[in-house]
UniProtKB/TrEMBL annotation:
Entries under PANTHER family matching the protein: MULTI-COPPER OXIDASE, OS01G0816700 PROTEIN
Gene3D superfamilies: Cupredoxins - blue copper proteins
Name of protein: L-ascorbate oxidase-like protein
Signal peptide: 1-22
Keywords assigned: Signal
GO MF, one example: copper ion binding
Ranges for domain Plastocyanin-like: 32-144, 158-299, 386-526
Family named by the database record: Belongs to the multicopper oxidase family.
Species of provenance: Thalictrum thalictroides (Rue-anemone)
Length: 557
């Protein structure tokens, strides 16, 4: 009898131990968001600081960690943060977009709690409200593989984040005022690399990073800019591409990489050259003007002596669309790597799944009431006072927006006559859909979809037709969250709509996003079950017409 009691106690204790161990680790961050004055391009200007840092602090996490980010908004305007590429599985409550969340009022705080569930890779965060992104507030977010999951390359000596992007010397409020008045954003004043533009005269160049002779380093490169595709290269060194937008890739080496708006790449660089300084270079692509930024990487001499300055002769940038398109076609998903797989229902066998719906997305530009607006299929999105997700959850969607005003296949007349209204499209839970992005304009487009990774199966010139499907890559397209479309071209993606919530599809060009080139997919689980979507958080900020309303009945298992 005593033995049975001891066995029962042991089983109980083991169960409790397993229960405690089953919860993923927690990482806690307190962010004090303020204004500050810096001179990134040599001109004093107002920037947004997080804990007095510009760019903001890196978040270094591991797959499935619980990230607790407590944001204190000490700006004079409402504020939200979004997490570019983090899928927020079942949890669009933490997406941090104007369509999903009420903003954090000035002088208040809000705590985000989310997991990079079954994700690895290189991402970034940014402020999604107004034009705050033009003042900073962005930073790197990396998600490492769990220790038990092998990575398809040896551990690097160190892991560095490189945030590149265009930059304006006008304040975010001045840029917003220009856009609100109907003016275009205009060309940027320069480029930044981790908040600096760099020098190329070899004088007083403090290194952004250091390397030891013979060691290999990981560099995570993200384009956090507002308007411009960039090319990134590393003086005197090749870069072995190992990951992009959260997926391991077939490891090819490149002398330079086109990094479009919202995209992140991870490369390995081996310090196998003469010990001296070398430049990392970012420069504009597909523009009539040429802007660049540099950052120094310094070899550490084995004897501790001072190394020679970097050569002022910078590696040349590529030209033309054909070069960029060929590079895109060289990217392949690493199907043999052990990693968190997106779309757990098995849609990584995407080439074998029947398409249930095709949606054509056509971007356009026009004027409404004499002011500049951008649109998707003739609808220029506006954010209502009550966030779309909250209106839907509280059962008052009909008082805030109308579903499905946007057609799956727009007519030429709808593209010419832009209307301004919330743009929300219903998508059936777990449907496998095809989205075609057509870009009839002369400028390159870049797109991001929250809540998902998708398979970009083709990019080609001209207009899409169903016959183009025979050219799709149906085997090893890289699963990712962003896609670019060259001028007068189209791109096709495929995905399973298996993540319930309200999800933003947007132009990564921030003037276009701000002036309407965005929309939301409403993906509702028919079961209203906790298996498919989490309940609204207890600390959710409420605003608009739902403020003061009784809480809806919570979801059940």
């Amino acid at each position: 009898m005593a033995g049975r009691v001891m066995l029962s106690v042991l089983v109980c204790c083991l169960a409790a131990f397993v229960l405690v161990q089953a919860e993923d680790p927690y990482l806690f961050f307190n962010w004090n968001v303020t204004y500050g004055t810096l001179s990134p391009l040599g001109v004093p200007q107002q920037v947004i600081l997080i804990n007095n840092q510009f760019p903001g602090p890196n978040i270094n996490s591991t797959s499935n960690n619980n990230l607790i980010v407590n944001v204190f908004n000490n700006l004079d305007e409402p504020l939200l943060f979004s997490w570019n590429g983090i899928q927020q599985r079942k949890n669009s409550w933490m997406e941090g977009m104007p369509g999903t969340n009420c903003p954090i009022p000035p002088g208040k705080n809000y705590t985000y709690h989310f997991q990079p569930k079954d994700q690895i890779g290189s991402y970034f965060y940014f402020p999604s409200t107004a034009m705050h992104k033009a003042a900073g507030g962005f930073g790197g977010l990396r998600t490492n593989s769990r220790l038990l999951i092998p990575v398809p390359y040896a551990d690097p000596e160190d892991d560095y984040t490189v945030l590149i992007g265009d930059w304006y010397t006008k304040s975010h409020s001045a840029l917003r005022k220009n856009l609100d008045s109907g003016k275009a954003l205009g060309r940027p004043a320069g480029l930044l690399m981790n908040g600096k533009t760099g020098k190329t005269d070899g004088k007083d160049d403090e290194p952004l990073f250091t390397m030891k002779q013979g060691k290999t380093y990981k560099f995570r490169i993200c384009n956090v800019g507002l308007k411009t595709s960039l090319n990134f290269r590393f003086q005197g060194h090749s870069m072995k591409l190992v990951e992009m937008d959260g997926s391991h890739v077939v490891q090819n080496s490149y002398d330079s990489l086109d990094v479009h708006l919202g995209q992140c790449f991870a490369v390995l660089v081996t310090a196998d050259k003469d010990p001296k300084d070398y430049y990392m270079v970012a420069s504009t692509r597909f523009t009539k003007y040429m802007l660049s930024a540099t950052g120094v990487v310094r070899y550490i001499a084995t004897d501790g002596s001072k190394v020679a300055p970097a050569s002022p002769e910078l590696p040349p940038a590529p030209t033309g669309v054909a070069w960029s398109l060929n590079q895109f076609r060289s990217f392949r998903w690493n199907l043999t790597a052990s990693a968190a797989r997106p779309n757990p229902q098995g849609s990584y066998h995407y080439g074998q799944i029947n398409i249930t719906r095709t949606i054509k997305i056509v971007n356009s530009v026009s004027t409404v009431d004499g002011k500049l607006r951008y649109a998707i299929n003739g609808i220029s999105h506006i954010n209502p006072e009550t966030p779309l997700k909250l209106a839907e959850y509280f059962g008052v969607a009909s008082k805030v927006f109308t579903y499905n005003n946007m057609k799956d296949d727009p007519s030429s007349s709808s593209l010419e006559n832009i209307v301004t209204e919330p743009n929300v499209v219903n998508a059936t839970f777990r449907d496998f859909i095809e989205i075609i992005f057509e870009n009839p304009e002369k400028s390159i487009q870049s797109w991001h979809l929250d809540g998902y990774s998708f398979f970009p199966v083709a990019i080609e010139g001209g207009k899409w037709t169903p016959e183009k499907r025979k050219n799709y890559n149906l085997l090893d397209a890289v699963s990712r969250h962003s896609i670019h479309v060259y001028p007068s071209s189209w791109a096709a993606i495929m995905l399973t709509m298996d993540n319930a919530g309200m999800w933003n599809l947007r132009a990564n060009s921030w003037d276009r996003y701000y002036l309407g080139q965005q929309m939301y997919f409403s993906v509702l689980s028919p079961n209203y079950s906790l298996r498919d979507e989490y309940n609204i958080p207890d600390n959710a900020e409420l605003c608009g017409i739902i403020k003061g309303m009784p809480m809806p009945k919570p979801y059940t298992p």
